[in-house]
Design goal:
The complex is a heterodimer of chains A (146) and B (206).
Chain A lengths: L1 H19 L2 H16 L12 H15 L3 H64 L14
Chain B lengths: L1 H34 L3 H13 L5 H12 L3 H14 L6 H13 L3 H14 L2 H19 L4 H16 L3 H16 L7 H16 L2
Helix pairs in contact in B: 1-2, 2-3, 3-4, 3-5, 4-5, 5-6, 6-7, 8-9, 9-10
The chains are: A mainly alpha (146), B mainly alpha (206).
Chain lengths: 146, 206
């Protein structure tokens, strides 16, 4: 019994190690390579921010627009609203895609596990039949240990 | 009996080994998208891998994708969460992406601190880029900040908190405090220190 438990524990840890390595290591290495490939410099030069200058820039832009200021502000407001809606829609789509991906992976895993269990049962049944055929063991369902 | 037992063990081995593989598949798909500059798709793949238990490294990949998508404040939030949850997974390249996210939301002090250690730990290309960004930041970090600069960071922290990004909020307060202590009059330094304490306590209790 003790030996069985040790064997099962050993096999489980070996299986999980087999699953993580080296496939896991390769996957991480591929991501790191991609990240390194696409690393870039910032697009804008740095500048310390302040709300007043941000506002001043906005006012200057509005004055420069003159009479059309109001209409353009309204248009800008509309664009900002649309962008906010678009951003919210993107976030929703992203979350839905993540859920779909995780669910499909879980379904695949369940199918694999079911297949493995069925295989195990079939093997066990075959083993059983083998014992039934043994001479001197009628019925073949003895609970006595071998 | 022994054969049956061995077959059962083999079936168990196969099912356990198959369990962890899908997360890696999504990491690989994410890597392909990232390399092809399809950062939205990469983000989705890394998030799926994260949900399937790819480990702490996937949090960093999600954060890097957000940086590339221009969602810098979310990226800072994700990087800060990842570094506090899994500091052992950090490396120079991930710190470089974290620094870029900080730079994008004008957390220049934090960006500079991250970049200062990147050079020694990374390859020549990343080290050169880190050096270039630090050189661009140096005059800005040496100049005396105005009260309006400090106001901006403290305002931003309140907005980040409202948006549900407490770690980014802490980062803004830290930046504001650091600027305030560089001024002779320590403009709003005491207030920033008090807000930082409060925000840090709120983060701990989450």
């Amino acid at each position: 019994m003790k030996r069985t438990l040790i064997a099962v524990a050993g096999l489980l840890s070996a299986a999980s190690a087999f699953a993580d390595e080296p496939a896991g290591r390769n996957a991480r290495a591929a991501v790191i390579e991609a990240l390194e490939d696409r690393a870039s410099l910032p697009a804008q030069p740095p500048s310390l921010p302040d709300s007043a200058s941000d506002r001043a820039r906005e006012v200057n832009a509005t004055v420069a627009r003159g009479q059309k200021g109001q209409e353009e502000r309204a248009a800008a407001h509309e664009v900002a609203n649309q962008q906010a809606k678009e951003h919210a829609r993107k976030l929703q789509t992203e979350a839905a895609e993540v859920d779909r991906g995780a669910a499909s992976a879980a379904r695949k895993n369940n199918a694999d596990t079911r297949a493995a269990t069925a295989q195990e049962r079939s093997d066990a049944a075959k083993g059983h039949r083998g014992h039934d055929d043994l001479p001197g063991r009628p019925g073949g369902h003895s609970l006595k240990p071998n | 009996m022994r054969w049956r037992f061995l077959r059962a063990l083999l079936a168990l081995f196969i099912s356990v080994a198959a369990w962890a593989a899908p997360a890696d598949e999504h990491l690989l798909a994410g890597a392909r998208h990232f390399r092809a500059e399809r950062y939205g798709e990469a983000l989705v793949e890394f998030k799926v891998a994260e949900q399937l238990g790819a480990g702490a490294s996937a949090h960093y990949y999600v954060a890097a994708s957000l940086q590339k998508l221009g969602r810098a404040e979310e990226s800072v939030e994700s990087f800060a969460a990842a570094t506090s949850a899994a500091p052992h997974e950090r490396d120079a390249l991930l710190d470089y992406y974290y620094a870029l996210a900080c730079y994008d939301v004008r957390l220049y002090g934090r960006a500079d601190r991250l970049l200062s250690s990147v050079g020694e730990r990374s390859g020549p290309r990343i080290a050169a880029m880190a050096g270039k960004v630090r050189a661009d930041l140096a005059p800005l970090l040496a100049a005396p900040p105005s009260p309006a600069n400090i106001d901006w960071y403290l305002e931003r922290s309140a907005e980040a908190l409202k948006a549900g990004r407490p770690r980014a909020a802490v980062a803004y307060i830290e930046e504001g405090l650091s600027l305030a202590t560089r001024r002779g009059d320590r403009y709003r330094a005491q207030e920033a220190a008090a807000r930082l304490k409060e925000a840090a306590k709120a983060l701990e209790s989450r």
